[in-house]
């Protein structure tokens, strides 16, 4: 099984992490290889420590700091990149791929068509629905008003589409129910592994300014976070706050809190699974529509885009969350209903295997 996915501290690590989550479901009975651009050393060690082979590809274009929302490569470049990937695989003795998983916004049908030369089955993970795919299975775990139809003209007739939060790719820890009572005055802050926009520090600054409120907080950042010393000093100035760096127990922290302040993306479904209400600042354009849809369905509170949500907006949202716990519990319950059909850690893997073995 081979995954083609990229990630970095500049463009984010969410795609790597969701592929890693899916890969671990297959690991007990399959060999797994990741093909990626250069990754942070700690993440490389994590991947290889699981027994996954990690192969480095050339950057997909000349600017390795490109956004995942950069334009899709043209046909010629996609074919060339596929040939490059096949050469790398052949060099380590991989001539036939049982399942190829592609999670990359700049790759589409031309890349998959070339990879068919050595791939028995192709699975695409996407969020954008902005290009054609040639694959056997397509997964898009996001919620949109038209989530069940938006790939109708973008995949072949034989492709099985797994669409909506029911098919969220979640780590096994998110399936462990908690019996601990939540603290309505306790919040969790997390904007992903690297938080390149440094929203974590902005929210901590707001907490520092809210001296009149009795609040406790857990603040989570990854090893790729660049402002750790400044953030640590600010967190230490708060009476009831704790900083967690690259923690492996975020589901426990989610279960402890009534409210979580963070970004969109896959954390929507982690929050839903653990029953914590989300107050969201969207970090990228591809997070906006799902977050808006969740906000309109009363499954989260959207505070706005990162360049629009002000410190006053954040302050008022925190004050509202602390003073209106029943509203936050209702938001969390509504969100939880969206992932209720995803009942066990191997649900997505089992669904894929059932499709490709039929």
UniProtKB/TrEMBL annotation:
<feature type="binding site">
    <location>
        <position position="171"/>
    </location>
    <ligand>
        <name>substrate</name>
    </ligand>
</feature>
<keyword id="KW-0378">Hydrolase</keyword>
<dbReference type="GO" id="GO:0016787">
    <property type="term" value="F:hydrolase activity"/>
</dbReference>
<protein>
    <submittedName>
        <fullName>UDP-2,4-diacetamido-2,4, 6-trideoxy-beta-L-altropyranose hydrolase</fullName>
        <ecNumber>3.6.1.57</ecNumber>
    </submittedName>
</protein>
<feature type="active site" description="Proton acceptor">
    <location>
        <position position="15"/>
    </location>
</feature>
<feature type="binding site">
    <location>
        <position position="270"/>
    </location>
    <ligand>
        <name>substrate</name>
    </ligand>
</feature>
<dbReference type="InterPro" id="IPR020023">
    <property type="entry name" value="PseG"/>
</dbReference>
């Amino acid at each position: 099984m081979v995954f083609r996915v990229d990630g970095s501290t500049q463009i984010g690590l969410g795609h790597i992490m969701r592929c890693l989550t899916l890969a671990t479901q297959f690991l007990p009975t399959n060999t797994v290889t990741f093909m990626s651009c250069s990754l942070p050393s700690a993440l490389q060690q994590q991947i290889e420590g699981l027994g996954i082979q990690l192969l480095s590809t050339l950057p997909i274009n000349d600017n390795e700091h490109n956004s995942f929302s950069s334009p899709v490569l043209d046909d010629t470049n996609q074919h060339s990149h596929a040939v490059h990937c096949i050469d790398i695989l052949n060099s380590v003795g991989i001539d036939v791929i049982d399942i190829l998983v592609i999670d990359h916004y700049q790759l589409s049908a031309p890349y998959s068509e070339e990879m068919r030369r050595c791939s028995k089955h192709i699975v695409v993970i996407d969020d954008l629905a902005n290009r054609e795919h040639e694959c056997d299975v397509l997964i898009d775990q996001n919620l949109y008003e038209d989530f069940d139809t938006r790939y109708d003209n973008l995949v072949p007739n034989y492709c099985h589409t797994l669409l909506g939060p029911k098919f969220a790719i979640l780590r096994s820890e998110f399936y462990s129910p908690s019996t601990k009572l939540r603290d309505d005055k306790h919040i969790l802050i997390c904007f992903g592994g690297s938080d390149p926009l440094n929203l974590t520090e902005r929210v901590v600054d707001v907490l520092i300014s809210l001296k009149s409120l009795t609040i406790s907080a857990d603040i989570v950042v990854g090893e790729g976070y660049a402002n750790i010393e400044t953030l640590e000093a600010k967190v230490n100035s708060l009476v009831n706050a704790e900083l967690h760096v690259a923690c492996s127990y975020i589901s426990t922290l989610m279960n402890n809190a009534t409210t979580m302040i963070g970004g969109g993306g896959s954390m929507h479904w982690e929050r839903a699974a653990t029953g914590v209400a989300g107050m969201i600042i969207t970090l990228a354009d591809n997070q906006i529509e799902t977050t808006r849809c969740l906000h309109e369905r009363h499954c989260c509170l959207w505070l706005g885009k990162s360049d629009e949500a002000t410190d006053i907006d954040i302050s008022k949202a925190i004050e509202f969350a602390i003073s209106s716990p029943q509203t936050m519990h209702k938001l969390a319950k509504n969100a939880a209903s969206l992932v209720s059909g995803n009942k066990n850690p191997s649900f997505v893997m089992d669904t894929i295997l059932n499709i490709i073995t039929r």
